[in-house]
Amino acid sequence: MRREELVAETAITLLVERGMRGLTHRAVDEAAGLPQGSTSNLARTRAALLALTLARLTALEEGYFTAVPSTAVPSAGDPSAGGPDTGGSEAHGGAYGAYGAYGPDALAGLMARLLFTQLTDGRRTTIARYELALEATRRPELRKVYDEAGRRFREVATAVLAAAGSADPVRHGRQLVAFGEGVLFDAVAGAGAVPGLEELRDGMRELLRGMLQT
Q: Which domains, and CATH codes, for the chain?
């Protein structure tokens, strides 16, 4: 692992375990087993350290998103599949265009798996992102970085729904992100229990069927 990644991963862990007040350059050095001053050499200011951490979080969450389609390729006989990808979905979604090969029911299963990953294996990244989200409300320089990361995910949601046949992918993309964020926040920071994969799939199926009018 490169030192930059080590620093960012350690910062994520500190955010989860100690909160924003526990994240300092010195704390990262100590927790990562690095010589004192190593983190400052990579990120001179606190704002730079937060931006580095957010960049790592964004990369991790993008990794969850792009990994999901590769785990479940629809067969030609799958009635919920949208047919083979002829290349048009790539124009909409780039690396995410694979989602366009699925009908709403199969797509709901993939999106449910993504949320479930963020609630289980990726729970630490979800918690750390919430810590940074609150901090961004008080730091304009972090707000800019955070909003850019959020814009990228909203664009992906729009591209996925455009590839799946949405008549209004921009509006539906915002709604899809809002639904997912609501589920995550309720289960991670709210009073709700962590939903099972089947419950997530049912909720996503109902949402997507309405959006895609099936």
A: 1-44 (1.10.10), 57-212 (1.10.357.10)
